[in-house]
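Progress against Task 2.4 (sequence-to-structure conversion) is shown through the following example record, which the project officer requested during the mid-term review.
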Amino acid sequence: MPGSRKLGRATAHRKAMLRALVTYLIENEKIETTVPRAKEVRSLAEKMITIGKGEDLHSKRQIFSFITKEDVAKKLIDVISPKYKERSGGYTRIVRLGPRRGDAAEMAIIELV
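Structure tokens generated for the chain above:
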């Protein structure tokens, strides 16, 4: 896993949470979360989209091993990656929303461009 943010989680929990967030982002193309989580999700989501551009079996297997829902993995391979064929990175945008009511955590929306 890239980056050094531990996000207050044990390794296995953190990996599972980030996989779920990336899957949810690709499924809905937009999610609201905290800024540190959004920054971690950005790097993983962009890697998945870049891998999806490769149309070989190895790329597909890498995607299916990371994305937690089969239909979302197919969407990534068939719809999202081809959309960014001409683009060399920068597939996501993070927009800060301000503090969350309750614990004042800095919130953000991460979306596919």
